[in-house]
Structures are given as C-alpha cells and as structure tokens.
Design a protein that fits this description.
disordered C terminus, 6-stranded mixed sheet, alpha/beta, about 325 residues, Fructose-1,6-Bisphosphatase, Chain A, domain 1, 11 helices
C-alpha cells in the first residue's frame, strides 16, 4: 500500500477539525517559504516575487495615525494569499477566513484561479492526521460552518522590516493560523520560518519549525521546557505596545520573586514560543492585539495546559468582528 494511499485514507477518516489543522500546517509552511525564499515566482508559478532579499520590501504603513507601528510588506500580502489559496482549495468558499491583510484585487484573482486546482495532500500533514484519534468528542463533529480561521501571515512585521539592519530579529517572525469555535480558540499553528537562523546565516538552509496544537490533544513540534534557565525565571512582553498595565504587571511579578528579569520582544507568536522554550510568563497588552494575533497563540498555550490569566478588559473573543 503506497504512502499516498495511506495519507488519503487518513484524510478521509479524520474529523473536519483535524483536516483543517493539517491543511493549516501545510499552508503556514508554504507561507514561510514565500517569506524567506529568494525567488518564489519559480516555485509557485504565481505573481509573487522575492521580498526579503530584494532590498525593497514595498512597505505600507497601515497605522492611520502615522506612528509606523502597523507596517505591511509584500511578504505579508503574498503569504496571506498563499494561505487562503490552500485553505479554499481544500474546503471551498464556505470556510470563513479572517486575515490581517486586505488583499488587492490582483491577489484575490490569483487565489480564486489557483484554488480550483486539485487539492494535494502533503506528507507532513500525516503528523496531524495521526493525532485524530485523540480529538475530544465535543470537537469531532464540528463542521465548516462552525469554525472561523484567523490568519496573521507575518507576525512581527516590524522586526521583519528592521532585520535589514539587524538579521537577528528575523527569529521573532512567525506565521499564525488560529481556529476558533463559538469565539474561543481551539486549535492553532505557529510557524517560525527563521528558527535557528543564528546557527546558519544562509537563509536557504533554514527550514524553520512548526508548532501546532489542538485543545485536549496536546502541542506538537516542540519540546516544552519546564525548567528556568540558570539566570533565573524571566518574562517576555511587548516591544511595541507597552502600557502602564504591562509595567505594573511586570513589577508585581518581580516583587513576588516570580521572575528575575523580562525581555521585550516582537510578535505574539514568538512570545508564546518563548514560553514553551522556558520563559516563565508572557505579559501582554490588549491594546494593539487583534484576534489574528492571539487566536493561534492562545490555542497553543491552552493545548499545552499553560495557565492563562486575563484582566476584565482583554478576556475572550466574543464575536468575529471584535478586534
């Protein structure tokens, strides 16, 4: 029996949520490839162009106040188009996808055209499909109408832009795909395209890493570290949206000797990876955070049985239209 046949059988026998997570994993990795590969036109036979090494990131400032905290690059738009194309190809237009970027008409036309191509299963999707038997019963019968997919195609855009002068910042770039049911995150994918960049300066050699989780099933793609580093427990927090509430929380953690220090880093996805890699806490501000920023990270943390504490102002995802 061929591997392709086995994969098709696994796909056929898996519940919708499992298939959606498997496809999201594949889509996130494809988006990561678009972000970092020198020329993606040859790889994907689409309108997409190299965006990282060209020197021109085609940056758009989306911040209406002109504070340059909400940047958008060609990489964001190309990556989101790739994610939407793969999801629509697998599940059709009934799947509700909410992406951070508002794509120009030219991208929408490419998505519509390519999504009609035959959907292909990827070998790595088997890792997710194998976990289908562990999906809780209350999630097994969810359908395409029940779920919303939240996409941040390039979390950490500010770091991505500034990496032209400081390549170490690329480690903070992630691709986020979160899945919610009745407003709550139940599954998510975090792809880190530049993982281990410091160990190999050749971007083409960096395969990145993908972390995915489903509530009640667990987190995969990472060995969760539960031991503090020799320097003591530390927290990670926002580098761009700090507030008095954040500063108060950090001070309280230090006064209670729960942390020895804190680090300001970019990207909601990267901060969650820091927690899984050994950070003791993640202190975030609700200001500046949208559902496409938080759906995947919260789903992964929940799947890892990591405690989440909220203030009354930032708890929950009540409706698809809330920011």
């Amino acid at each position: 029996m061929s591997q392709a046949f086995n994969l098709q059988e696994m796909w056929k026998n898996s519940c919708f949520l499992t298939r959606l997570v498997a496809t999201s994993l594949n889509a996130a990795e494809s988006a990561g490839m678009i972000i970092k590969v020198t020329t993606v036109y040859q790889l994907f036979n689409t309108i997409f162009q190299c965006v990282m090494t060209s020197g021109d990131l085609k940056i758009i400032n989306k911040d209406l106040e002109g504070l340059k905290k909400d940047l958008q690059t060609e990489a964001d738009r190309s990556a989101q188009a790739e994610i939407e194309k793969k999801l629509i190809s697998a599940f059709g237009n009934k799947l509700q996808i909410v992406g951070e970027e508002e794509l120009p008409l030219s991208y929408s036309q490419v998505i519509s055209h390519d999504a009609h191509n035959e959907f292909n299963l990827s070998g790595k999707m088997s890792d997710v499909l194998l976990a289908d038997k562990n999906v809780p019963e209350d999630l097994r019968f969810l359908t395409v109408e029940d779920l919303i997919v939240w996409v941040d195609p390039l979390d950490g855009t500010s770091e991505f832009v500034r990496a032209q002068n400081d390549p170490t910042l690329l480690d903070q770039v992630t691709v986020l795909i979160g899945i919610t049911y009745r407003g709550r995150p139940i599954a998510g994918v975090i792809h880190q395209p530049y993982y281990n960049l410091l160990s190999d300066s050749n971007v083409s050699n960096i395969t990145g890493r993908s972390i995915w989780g489903i509530k009640g099933v667990g987190v995969f793609g990472i060995d969760i570290c539960k031991v503090s580093p020799p320097t003591g427990p530390f927290a990670v927090t926002t580098a761009s949206h700090s507030s008095e509430l954040v500063d108060t929380a950090l001070k309280a953690l230090q006064e209670e000797n729960l942390i020895c220090s804190f680090r300001r880093v970019g990207g909601a996805g990267f901060k969650v990876l820091c927690c899984l890699d050994g950070a003791a806490a993640y202190v975030f501000a609700s200001g500046g955070c949208k559902k496409w920023d938080t759906a995947a990270p919260e789903a992964v943390l929940t799947a890892a049985d990591i405690c989440l504490c909220y203030t009354s102002k930032c708890k929950g995802f009540a409706s698809p239209t809330e920011g």
